């Protein structure tokens, strides 16, 4: 009946709202716990990689690192959320066997990070929507569409920028630029 159909749609909408609210609350708790502080970038990336690589669903993914030799300091206000999210998205895009390569370099006052995956890539028609709240390409019930929005928010909060390049069936690379924090500075 029509009433049953409406009820099922309402139930699905409520479930999705709860999921999204949970994600936002988790972000808010994480951000509150982590006031802006200076952190070593490679340590943050390593911690996120260690968490992601323990997920049995991502067993076929090979994680490679091409880090610059020197320790690199950045202002952190939730960057581990960013890396966890980008690595998870990369693994979901790979769907099985593939590679994720994380590269870091320093260019004067900036630190450059790229996260490349050999996944399915982003279709041309979705490229303009990728950072929009509630936009997702994942199957129904799998994604909330707030992950990349949150990533951009956190990166911009510390004075950085995130962009991407993608080719369908060939993969995606996210580029992050963050201000370098001199280890001698207090914040």
Characterization of the model:
Helices cover 39% and strands 26% of the residues. With 187 residues, the protein is α+β, with helices and mostly antiparallel strands. A hairpin with a 3-residue loop joins strand 6 and strand 7 (171-179). The longest helix is centred in the N-terminal third of the chain and has 32 residues, at 2-33.
Order of helices and strands: HEHEEHEEHEE
Residues in helix, %: 25-40%
Report the C-alpha radius of gyration, rounded.
Answer: 18 Å
Range of strand content:
25-35%
Shape annotation: globular
The secondary-structure class comes to alpha+beta
| Gap from first CA to last CA | 61 Å
Q: What is the topology, as strand order, of the major beta sheet?
A: 2-4-5-7-6
Number of strands: 7
The unreliable regions are none
Tell me about the biggest sheet? 5 strands, mixed
Compute the number of helices: 4
Q: Estimate the mean pLDDT confidence.
A: 82
Kindly list the characteristics that best describe this protein.
187 residues, 4 helices, alpha+beta, 39% helix, two-stranded antiparallel sheet, five-stranded mixed β-sheet, 7 strands
Strand and helix map with partners:
Blueprint: H1 2-33, E1 37-40, H2 41-53, E2 61-66, E3 73-76, H3 79-94, E4 98-107, E5 110-117, H4 147-157, E6 161-167, E7 171-179
Parallel strand pairs: 2-4
Antiparallel strand pairs: 1-3, 4-5, 5-7, 6-7
Helix pairs in contact: 2-3, 3-4
């Amino acid at each position: 009946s029509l009433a049953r159909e409406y009820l099922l749609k309402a139930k699905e909408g409520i479930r999705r709202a709860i999921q999204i609210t949970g994600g936002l609350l988790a972000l808010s708790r994480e951000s509150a716990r982590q006031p802006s502080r200076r952190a070593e970038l490679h340590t943050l990336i390593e911690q996120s990689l260690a968490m992601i690589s323990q997920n049995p669903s991502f067993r076929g993914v090979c994680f490679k690192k091409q880090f610059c030799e020197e320790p690199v300091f950045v202002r952190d206000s939730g960057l581990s959320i960013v890396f966890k999210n980008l690595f998870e998205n990369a693994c979901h895009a790979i769907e099985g066997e593939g590679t994720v390569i994380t590269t870091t370099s320093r260019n004067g006052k900036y630190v450059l990070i790229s996260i490349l995956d050999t996944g399915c890539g982003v279709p041309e028609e979705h490229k303009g929507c990728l950072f929009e709240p509630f936009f997702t390409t994942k199957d129904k019930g799998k994604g909330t569409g707030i992950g990349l929005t949150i990533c951009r928010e956190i990166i911009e909060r510390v004075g950085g920028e995130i962009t991407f390049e993608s080719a369908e069936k060939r993969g995606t690379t996210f580029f992050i630029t963050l201000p370098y924090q001199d280890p001698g500075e207090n914040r």
